[in-house]
Amino acid sequence: MKKIKLCKKEISFHLGLNILIAIFITFASYVHLPFGSFKGNLVYFIHFLLLQFTLFGFIYMFGLLNKVFKTLFPILFVIVSSFSFWVYTQDLTIGEGVIQRIFGTNIGEATDILSYQFIFFLLFSSICIFLFFRFQNKTKVSSVKSPLFFVAIFGISTFFIVENYKFDAFKNRLPYSIYFGAIKYFNKPKIKLKKVKENVIAKENDLHIVLVVGESVRADHLSLNGYQKNTTPLLSKQKNLVSFKKIYTPFTFTAKSLPQILTDKSINSNPELQEFTSLYSVLSKASFETEWIGNQVLEKSYTKIINSNKSKLIIDELHSFLSFKKEKDLTILKHFSIDDSFEGNKISSLHMIGSHWYYKSRITEEFEYFKPTIKSKYLGSLTSEELINSYDNTIVYLDFFLNELIEKLKKSSKKTILIYISDHGETLGEDGMWLHAQEHKASKNPAMLVWYSENFEKSYPLKIDNLKSKKQDSISTDFLFHSILDIGNIQNFKYEKEQSIFN
Fold this sequence. Notes:
The protein is an alpha/beta fold and 503 residues long. Helices cover 42% and strands 12% of the residues. Strands 4-13-10-3-9-7-8 form a seven-stranded mixed beta sheet. Strands 1-6 form a two-stranded parallel ribbon. The longest helix is centred in the last third of the chain and has 26 residues. The termini are far apart.
C-alpha cells in the first residue's frame, strides 16, 4: 500500500512538472506550425507527446539525484523559459546561431532585448516553478525501485529510436535545440583553409562579378529550360542570359555542397580531405573587394570560407529556415549596392534561402501564381499538386529576384557578370521521395545561369562565345571556382583553366 502511495506521488509530481514544461517551454516549438488538416494536427500532436515523453525519461533520471535536482532544475527551467519566450513571440530558431550571438553580446545589446512582456513571462515562469517545488518539497522525485524507472528508460530509448528514424526530429525543438546548438557552437569546425601566396594578381580590371547562391532549385523547373509551367516569365525576356540544363553535384544538402562549390575541392576529392583553398582567399590576395550578403544562418562546414571575405553581412541571422518568420530574399537586394566609383575588381556573393522547405514561407502572397498550394507543414496531408505548385511559386519568386538584380546591374558602367547557381536540387515525389538530402538524381541537378553586361561582352567576346557553346554540356559544380578565377585572369595561382565555362 505504501509503495502504491509513493508511486502515485511520483506520477503526480512528474505529471505536474511536465505540464509546466509543456506550457512554458516545449509548446513554443509547435505554436507557429501550420497544421492544416486533421491528419496534420494529429501527427504533430503525437510528435509533441513523444517529445514530452522523452523529456520525462531524462528528467526522471536526473531526479535520482534528489537534492541536486531540486536545487538545479528550477534554475534550468527559468533559463530555458527565457529562450522559449522568443520562440513564442518571434518564432526564433534556438540553435547554434543564437548561442553564438549570446556569447558575442555585450551588456548594451543585452539590455535591448528587455521588455515588460519578457520580464513578466520570466517572473511568471519563475513563480510557477518555485511554487511547484515548494509544495512538492517532501516528494521523492525518482527511485530505481519504482515502475516509473523502467518507463523513463523507455522514454530515453524513444528519443534515440525516433532520431535514428528521422534525423533532428527532436533536436530542433526546445529544450533539446539549446543543448545541441551549444554543442555545435563549441565544437568548432576542423576545416583548414590553405594559405594563398602574396604575389597573386588579377590581369583584368574594372570587373564586378556577382555570384548568387540559390537553395534547392532544380534546373528542370525553369521554363527557360523547357519546363511546361511559365516559372521564369521575366528572365525569358532578358538578353545576354545563358541557362545551363546539365549541371551536376553529388551533394544534396548545403553543408556538403557549398564548401565544394566555393573552394578548389573537387566532387571527386577524397571525402576525408578537409584542407582546401577558399575562392575568396585567392581573390582577396588578387586585390578583389570581396563581400558576402546572406539570408541563411552559416553552418560550421562553410563558416570559415565565408569569413574569408573582406566584408560579411548575414541578414536575419536569428531566424533559420525552420522559422516561419524568416526574412524574404528580396531583402538581400536592399543591402546590395553598386559603386562605380570604386577602382579595381569586386565579387559580391548573395546567398538566398531560395526554395528551401517550407515553400510557402519563402514568398509573399502575390507570388502564389500556381494553385492550389500547401497549407500544412505535414507532407502526409498534402497532395503532389499542392507541393509542386508551391515549389514552382518559389521559382517565380526567384525569377523576380534575379530580374530585379539584373536591372540593377544594367545601371553599372563596370564589366559586370552574374552567375547564379543553386547549391543542389530538390526531389519532388520521384520514387516517393520529397525535399532534398535525398540520394536521387532530381536533387543532383541544380539550376545554373549566367547573365553578362554589354560592357562585359564587348571586352570578352571570345569568353561569351565559349560560354554559349557549353550550355548543353554536362558540367559538374567544380566549374565555378576555376571559371571565376579565369574571368579575373588570375596569375601566380594554379587552377584548372580547362574547367572554366569561359575557356
